[in-house]
Predict the structure of Chloride channel protein.
Amino acid sequence: MTLIDRLRLRLGGFDALALMAVIGLICGLLAGGSNILFRLFTESSLVLWATDPDTKTDYETMDWLYRLLLPTIGGLIVGILLQQLKPENRQVGVSHVLERMAYHQGHLPPKNAFVQFALGGLTIASGQSVGREGPGIHLGSASASWVGQKLKLPNNSTRILVGCGCAAAISANFNTPLAGVIFAMEIIIMEYAVASFIPIILASVAGAILTRLVFGDGASFDVPSKLDIQSLWEMPYFLLVGFAGGVLASIFIIATRKVRQVSREWPVWLKTTVAGTSVGIIAIGIPQVMGIGYDSVNSALQGELALTILVLALVGKLIATIICSGLSLPGGVIGPALFLGAMLGGVMGNVGGELFPDHASYTGFYAMIGMATVMGAVLQAPLAALMALLELTNNPNIIFPGMFSIVIGNLVVTQLFKQQSFWETQMTDRGLDLRVSPIKQVLRSIGVAGVMSRSMATLNFRSTPDEIQVALKDKPRWVLVMEDEHVTSLMVASDLVRYMMEREEKQREETPKPDSEQKRKVINLLKIPANRQDLVSVNLQATLEEAFDKMEQAKMSAAYVYRITHDGQERIYGVITRDMITDQYVYTHKP
């Protein structure tokens, strides 16, 4: 057995933490690198515009005609290019990653990642109201998935690597390694386990290191220093901030879904052109809606925007993002959610300062709370939002009101408006379901390679006593019965041993025959009395969930585990039964 085969077998179980940590670190470097390249691409002169380093503004100082034409033409170009692709290659973003995790064991196609990089970059660069974090998560996850696929790792390991790529992407975009870990576990992996935590942590750190090497160690936002709650009398007002953030998030999710449903039959190029034109029209009067808008977010955090600008930017960005997301432009929603939250928090801070000047905190404090609240409510990721809030501010004083507001916002979305997260809504509209039973969740995290029995022998269904004796020499537990080089059934080895013993005893009692004649006599293993069962085949990369589903569909209770070698031959590695899968689940949940 080769070294890589031994590694694959180890990665299928629980005892490969050190190995997964090394591979996770490599994936973190690749994912962080892909996100850095994407950011450089969208901010370079290679695309439709370049950020002005002197004014530090993106669009506010541009002529109104340029603000109209840039997103309109950009949307048309992106749509024409998307129209040339097959529908399956147009799937990009976080929802695509979630779909591949739920239905394809984390195997992300490289073609979709290239589409995300090129067309997602053009979308952002042409000033559309989308974010770069969603495309970044796709690129990071695809980079890590590519490693797993190239090494032909077990699918349970590839799923963890996708989480590593996601964590590194979040870390690289925001310089928040802890929030990247929590986001990956909360949204992508959807479970918390030590086997996943360690590699994902290392990947997230790797993404942060690369970002700091290229862009410096500063935070993504200009966070103000005045981040202290002024009075406990503000807590009811933070409840109101959470409620408003939840309502805003619900409006965004519901309206985006309506736009998506209305435009479902439209040609792709028409969708993107309408989206771009809409952004351009809104940007004539409210230029802050164009692009990622982090300059406006920073201004809100510093308390530099007047109440009128905050309200206009909030309403304009909400409408523009609903249209862009509903019409399927290849961009993300995390950035716009942060923008909306900052504007909402700024509005609430201004109003609170006017109404309760003796008890209200700094306006930027409310903007920061609003960012985390709306992000957590839109994505249904409260813990990730809280961790991002802590890391971005580096101030534990903000956690107390932040927790209160974030939880209220999530409750408003889920309990009052009965809405799923933004990405779950996208998948539901396509007839896909992210919900997984606890049993399936456990089985999905374990590979067949870590559970299968390798104590087996293979025999042709017509074998001589000598051949059977050689096969039983190592005392296997199972015997795979072959016919024309194909597995036909599974036999318990002890049944074959008992039959051979009874046969020998019977021969001693009967008239003895020449020894050579006895050895040449062929035994039909399909006709002897034994416990035989039909079985299906599962790939060495499969998880216990895949093996269990395959047995269920075929109405069988056993499978043999194989892999196709480089020369096209089928190599058998072991046997797995339904009882082994059940025992593994019970063992994993042993108190």
The chain has a mean pLDDT of 89.
